[in-house]
Design brief:
Residues 93-102, 277-305 have a biased composition (Pro residues). The chain is an alpha/beta fold and 637 residues long. 50% of the residues lie in helices and 8% in strands. It contains 28 helices and 13 strands. A five-stranded parallel sheet has the order 8-9-10-7-11, sandwiched between helices. Strands 1-2-3 form a three-stranded antiparallel sheet, with no helix packed on it. It has a three-stranded antiparallel sheet with strand order 4-6-5. The radius of gyration is 29 Å and the shape is globular.
């Protein structure tokens, strides 16, 4: 690392007051003495507050980051205990239960106040901003120096010492992307001003952190060659080429291949081993004949200084995921369609399957992954508007707010133009319908939109989209899911109780997860006790509140006539539901009953087991009976 970067490194200078680090291990000091940030999850909370230093972080966002899966009921109280412990650590002189200047109370969230020079991430961001300003005004040498100083704050993987599931969250992945982007900018600036050796140490380190980032490795190849290390540059290219083929089954993309060809051309020209590659004239010192007048506008940012952003916006890979091998293979086969819809009943595991597949196949999409929760069936919040989703995705792709166009059509055009020649995976979770989705679908041939939803999307299917209807897992997979969450030994010790739990949950992954979370929190409680609870509450969803809420999300979207028929379906028993039987029950014409049953099947509140014959899942049957009782019987019958 250059001497000026070492001088700027936080570990190299005396510390007074508070100092925080998260660009590596999460650490903090007060008056030069290092403090213990506490348990890993408490460290994670500290790191999250540092990422947003000076801005409140909503409690819901904290819960989402600290608990990759559904947070336990006690999670808000746990967060309050963590905050109290951090307050005692950061404000030792403050009276108990009294907010101080570091952690002032905020309604619905928490805030950590810190000066920019106290946090390595804030110092990194300020240096990076200075570098970008210098690059934008043609001062490539100054830009390279500022970028290297910024990267001097980077000591290892972001937020080391916190749980892996937390570090995988998009909040921390975004910080890692900032570091890698600055490394690419540093290389561009150094190559422009002929100071490749200045950035080589930080560029080598960045390449280790992301061994499959083709734009980054292209810059490493060019920087090595410009430093007189042509042989090492060719070895670096061969290393990443072999890695791309072995891990992703891909050949190097155009940028990496062009860097390789440039090094080969230099060797073919028999230049000195120490002669740098040709670079554009230094913008800050152009030849006298072309020097601009003093009152001229500053030159635009060179294209090489603004490489495309590679978003990695996926939530964490599900910590527990069992089976679904056949469904995953079907997704593999359908991926060439450009749009794939994973559809199914509430709680069947659509989002988990989509995220597991997206993480497993991330290498197919080297230009990035985007994720948007559309809240199409969330009873607690309205569905996301397409324009809002586009603004969020454009921001993730590097498009700043002031540059965004107005209007849905213009936003859609900008979004599709950005993705036209890129390979990006776009996961659109819990879609409300075709109208919400269409503007969000990329048009590039290398992109894939992976959609999850509870509603039928006939417009997309008619346009060539592929659909995977997801049903409950097999009994064996459901049992394996329960065992994975409560412990294989514990499930094997009570096979009868485990089988009963699976049956009473109707093999629903959401229901099994709820039961398993209760059991995991009470390791001394036998599975037979939980089976008895489900048995005692038979006919209600009182032991499965989250399942009831998930079903409500779909039920509230039904038109009145469909909702009325759904409430009546439990009267038809288990012998199968047909249009003629529904007609006799409701007094509707057979043709109308057939249309309504089809609509309920499209909403995945019924399953069409055979043409014209439907079944009702055991938990949906209970929910329908609950709604009939709650809404005062069966209006209109």
């Amino acid at each position: 690392m250059p001497s000026d970067a070492r001088a700027a490194s936080p570990a190299a200078r005396p510390r007074q007051g508070m100092r925080f680090e998260l660009l590596g291990p999460v650490r903090l000091w007060r008056d030069g003495h290092e403090l213990d940030p506490g348990f890993p999850q408490q460290r994670a909370l500290l790191a999250l507050l540092l990422i947003h230093a000076g801005r409140p972080v909503p409690t819901a966002e904290i819960l989402d980051v600290l608990w990759a899966q559904r947070p336990p009921v006690s999670a808000p109280n746990v967060v309050r205990r963590y905050v109290a412990a951090l307050r005692r650590l950061l404000e030792p002189g403050s009276p108990p239960r009294t907010p101080g200047p570091r952690l002032p109370r905020r309604t619905g969230g928490h805030l950590l106040e810190a000066d920019p020079d106290e946090v390595d991430l804030l110092r990194f961001r300020e240096r990076t901003r200075e570098g970008k300003r210098a690059a934008a005004t043609g001062r490539a040498g100054t830009a390279a120096r500022q970028f290297v100083l910024a990267l001097g704050e980077w000591r290892g993987p972001v937020a080391m010492g916190v749980p892996a599931s937390v570090r995988d969250h998009a909040q921390f992945a975004a910080v890692q992307r900032e570091l890698l982007e600055t490394a690419r900018l540093a290389a561009d600036a150094a190559l422009l001003c002929g100071r490749a050796e200045q950035v080589l140490p930080v560029l080598r380190r960045a390449a280790v952190h992301d061994p499959l980032d083709e734009p980054l490795h292209a810059r490493l190849v060019l920087t090595l060659a410009a430093s007189g290390l042509q042989a090492e540059a060719l070895r670096a290219y061969d290393d990443v080429r072999l890695r791309l083929g072995r891990e992703l089954g891909l050949a190097p993309g155009p940028e990496l291949a062009a860097a390789h060809a440039r090094v080969l051309r230099q060797q073919a020209g028999r230049r000195s081993a120490h002669a740098p590659l040709p670079t554009p004239p230094t913008p800050s010192n152009p030849p006298p004949a072309t020097r601009p007048p003093a009152n001229a506008a500053p030159p635009p940012t060179p294209p090489a200084l603004t490489p495309a952003v590679r978003p990695a916006w996926l939530p964490s890979d599900p910590a527990v995921f069992v089976g679904r091998e056949a469904e995953s293979r079907r997704l593999d086969g359908a991926a060439g369609a450009g749009v794939v819809v994973v559809a199914g009943a509430p709680g069947v595991g659509k989002s988990a399957l989509a995220l597991r597949w997206a993480h497993r196949t991330a290498g197919r999409f080297p230009d990035g992954r985007l994720f948007v929760a559309l809240h199409g069936s969330d009873p607690a919040r309205p569905a996301v508007r397409p324009a809002d989703a586009l603004r969020a995705m454009l921001a993730a792709l590097g498009e700043d707010g002031p540059r965004l166009p107005d209007g849905l059509d213009a936003l859609t055009g900008r979004y599709r133009t950005l993705l036209a020649r890129r390979r990006v995976l776009v996961v659109l979770d819990d879609a409300a319908g075709t109208a919400q989705l269409r503007p969000l679908l990329p048009a590039g041939p290398g992109c894939l939109a992976l959609v999850t939803g509870r509603q039928a999307l006939p417009g997309l299917l008619a346009s060539g989209a592929r659909q995977l209807r997801l049903g409950p897992p097999s009994a064996e997979e459901a049992l394996a899911l329960l065992a994975a969450r409560v412990g294989a030994g514990r499930a094997a010790a009570e096979p009868g109780a485990a089988d009963e739990i699976v049956a009473r949950c109707g093999r629903s992954p959401l229901a099994l997860t709820l039961v398993a979370e209760r059991l995991a929190g009470r390791p001394d409680v036998p599975l037979a006790s939980e089976a008895a609870v489900l048995r005692d509450t038979h006919g209600t969803l009182d032991a499965l509140d989250a399942v009831r809420e998930a079903f409500l999300g779909s039920y509230r979207l039904l038109p009145p006539e469909q909702a009325r028929l759904f409430r009546m379906l439990p009267r038809l028993g288990d012998d199968g539901i047909t249009a003629s039987r529904a007609s006799a029950l409701t007094g509707l014409p057979v043709r109308r009953a057939r249309l309504l049953l089809g609509a309920l099947a499209d909403a995945h509140l019924l399953t069409e087991a055979a043409p014209g014959r439907y079944t009702l899942h055991v938990l949906l049957r209970v929910f329908a009976a609950e709604r009939a009782a709650a809404e005062g019987g069966l209006p209109g019958t």
